[in-house]
Amino acid sequence: MIPDDPRKPMDPSGVRIGVPAITTRGMKEKEVKIIANWINQAIKNHTDEKMLAKLHKEVIKLCKRFPLPK
Question: What is the pTM of this model?
Answer without folding.
Answer: 0.80
